[in-house]
Amino acid sequence: MTERIRIGISSCLLGNKVRHDGGHKFDSYIVNVLGRYLDFVPVCPEVECGLPTPREPMRLAGDVHSPRLMTSKTWQDKTEQMQTWADSKVRELEGQGLCGFIFKRGSPSSGMERVKVYPFTDPREVKNVGAPVLKGSGLFARTFMEHFPLLPVEEEGRLNDPVLRENFIERLFVVRRWYDLLESGMAPGAVVEFHTRHKLLLLAHSTQKYREMGRLVAAVREYSPEQFRTEYRRLLMEALSVRATAGRHANVQQHIMGYFRRQLTTDEKQELVEIIDRYRNGLVPLIVPVTMLNHYVRKYGDEYLAGQYYLNPHPVELKLRNHI
Which ranges carry the DUF1722 domain (predicted)? Predict the structure, then answer.
């Protein structure tokens, strides 16, 4: 890649004291680990829309599909204020070159999903306002996801799940490489190279989407540049949004193994088959078969496989494949 990965993030996760109580929610993994590879664009919807710090806490209330943003004690409606700012903010972010966004879990403005939505009952008049339902999205988060439907998004809490974490970060790196392709001018040869190098990675996610993309690339000259960019990016991100399974990973690994069928000894073949089966059955993490395959790629100097992002989708220092 030619540049670092630039993503939006809820400001409090960086340690900025913008929470309603004047505090923060510093996340050491995001800042100290991912921060070695990412540049952050901090966003605090409450502060940026004009609310003070500290301030009265807020909650979502009413219809889960179109909730109101209410202060939790004095019951002031801040919906229009927040929505007007959010609509303006996403247009501003169009020029930031974002590859994704990390939201603050549970926030009535920035929660991606499962945000509490309370019954529309004034707490000053009714002592028990009723139990909330975990079906909402924060107003800014919802606006962002609707405006940038193809960008990878996650919450800091969900990044504790190794599978979700690896998939999110993998997509960030793909988006950055896609931006590099756009900036290069997207010559047909460069498009074919991009698609070819992502082949095995895409197959680990969705064979169907990969085939659709292959047909699109084969007919690239039949589309206007804008049509091709739009359709290819849509298919690319839809494919990577499909969670890669152990079974599909194992199928890709067996496909790679086929490139060495003439070089490997009988014992080496048997060992590799056993390791792939152990991974498929959950006995070893993904890094184990991938490390062995990388060894054979280096040993036998296969140029095609050496260029496959499947074998090195992100820096090994992140240890993302050590836990899935």
Answer: 199-315
**Which residue range is the domain that position 210 belongs to?**
161-324
Are 31 and 15 spatial neighbours (Cβ–Cβ below 8 Å)?
yes
Shared-domain flag, residues 109 and 217: no
Give the strand pairing for 153-155 and 101-103. Answer: parallel
Helices and strands (H and E) in the chain: how many: 13, 8
Give the single-character DSSP code of 206.
-
Kind and range of the H or E element at 7? strand 5-10
219: tokens are 């007919």
**Which DSSP letter does residue 11 get?**
G
pLDDT digits (tens, 9 = 90+) for 197-218: 999 999 999 999 999 999 999 9
Q: Are strands 115-118 and 38-43 parallel, antiparallel or unpaired?
A: unpaired
80 has pLDDT over 70: yes
What is the tens place of the pLDDT at every residue in 108-121?
Answer: 999 999 999 999 98
Q: What is the tally of structural domains in the chain?
A: 2
User: Would you state the pLDDT for residue 1?
Assistant: 61
Instruction: Give 258-292 as a DSSP string.
Output: GGGTTTS-HHHHHHHHHHHHHHHTTSS-THHHHHH
Contact status, residue 6 vs residue 39, Cβ threshold 8 Å:
yes
**Same domain, residue pair 169 and 69:** no
Indicate the pairing of strand 68-71 with strand 58-61.
antiparallel
Are residue 101 and residue 208 in the same domain, yes or no? no
